[in-house]
Amino acid sequence: MTYNPTLMLSSPHSDTQSPQPAKPRVVIVGPGAMGCLHAGLLGRMPHLQVGLLDHRPDRAKLISNQGVIIEAPEGSYTVPTQCSANPDDFGTADLVIIFTKAYDTAAAAEHAEPLVSEDTAILTLQNGLGNYEVLQKYFPDEQVLAGTTASGATLLGDGRVRQAGLGKIVLGSPAGNHELAQRVAELLQSAGLAVQVTEDVDGLLWRKVLINCAINPLTALTRRCNGELLEIPVLRELLDEVAEEVYEVGQVAGVEWGNFAPGQEVKQVCQATATNQSSMLQDVLAGRRTEIDYITGAVVAAAQQHGVAAPLCQCLTALVKGLALRHG
Ligand code: PAF
Questions:
Q1: CB 63 within 8 A of CB 161
Q2: Which end of the chain is more exposed for a tag (fewer CB within 10 A), N or C?
Q3: Ligand 1 site: residues with CB under 6 angstroms?
Q4: Are 224 and 188 contained in the same domain?
Q5: Which ligand 1 atom is nearest residue 216's CA?
Q6: pLDDT tens for residues 204-229?
Q7: Whose CA is closest to atom 4 on ligand 1?
Q8: 210 with 250, same domain?
């Protein structure tokens, strides 16, 4: 796809000597599975300048030397990638995409501050509830976008991921800056990604968190792939019950679910991602802290705030928090 200069989010970095408009600069924060996948998907496009911000200088150096390696179903490829732990190495960005774990959002925002000018869009595509609210504490509300991605990836090593499936990104502006959401969507589409814009960001995030509440703790606790949850009748039933509970809490919290059928949607995702290890299972297997506080934990908090109970989410939160993790 050819570069379209109208995709710039801000005015091109001005250079009166050169007729060439500067390429849009995208910096991805967090070299985990999804961060590396997107650094590779965007970084292979010659019309974009893509960088990866890490907090670990040793890993950043390794990734800069080897590039991001994507094991895709059609074969492996390497994308040379500028990865640094120093945000000043990138200059200001047109788009910053936050892909850290939800518990690192505040640290990521602080680290990314030098990348952000008044023309920068900051987009969170992380799992869980509460991420865009944290970003709004660091950046102007109208520059913060939030969304979800249906893509899956497994981190195989530093800078190396297995692409599990490419799904749609849906994003929007919680502050109602729909024009910025549209421009960011076009920028991502120019890299061949499937992107849709929504005006109901909270509804979007609750739909995703409902799916994560059902799939992630059950896969992490049973150490099973997403698809296996459908094969065991008691787990299949539990998927339905958790989905129904989150649906009801969301309803009390003001989510407009429309014709979203909770159990059915969860089962469809299990089917579509049958061989995936959920991100929470990957965390548990690697001995890492999980995002449970931002998934079922966030639903329990919303339930308490509205004076209703969420016993299944409460129980799953406790069980996952009770797992013995090496780095948890
Ligand atoms: O967190 C994850 O793993 C993913 O969001 C999902 C949708 C559960 C698929 O594995």
A1: no
A2: N
A3: 127, 152, 211-212, 215-216, 226, 269, 273, 276, 278-279
A4: no
A5: 8
A6: 999 999 999 999 999 999 999 999 99
A7: 278
A8: yes
Residue that terminates a domain, selected from 147, 179, 199: 199
Domain end point (choices 199, 226, 261):
199
Q: Are residues 258 and 167 in the same domain?
A: no
Angle at which helices 201-222 and 233-252 pack, to 10 degrees?
150
Say if residues 206 and 130 touch (Cβ distance below 8 Å): no
- Residues 314, 195: one domain? no
Ligand 1, pocket-test mutation among 278, 280, 288, most atoms within 8 A of CB: 278
For residue 170, the cross-strand partners are: 148, 196
Nearest CA to ligand 1 atom 1: 279
pLDDT beneath 70: ranges in the chain: 1-19, 326-328
pLDDT of residue 19: 65
- To test the ligand 1 pocket, which listed residue (148, 149, 215) has its Cβ within 8 A of the most ligand atoms? 215
Examine the domain organization and report whether 271 and 302 are in the same domain: yes
Give the integer Cα–Cα distance in Å for 56 and 243. 37
In this structure, the answer to whether residues 168 and 212 fall within a common structural domain is: no
* 219 assigned to some structural domain: yes
3-state secondary structure labels for all residues of 110-145: HHHHHHCCCCCEEEECCCCCCHHHHHHHHCCHHHEE
Q: What is the pLDDT of residue 10?
A: 53
Q: Answer yes or no: do 217 and 303 share one domain.
A: yes
Which residue segment(s) compose the domain that 225 sits in? 202-327
CA 212 – ligand 1 centroid, Å: 6
Shared domain for 173 and 322, answered yes or no, is: no
What's the pLDDT score for residue 28?
98
Ligand 1 center to residue 93 CA distance, Å? 28
Instruction: Please list the active-site residues.
Output: 208
Structure tokens at 188: 């991502």
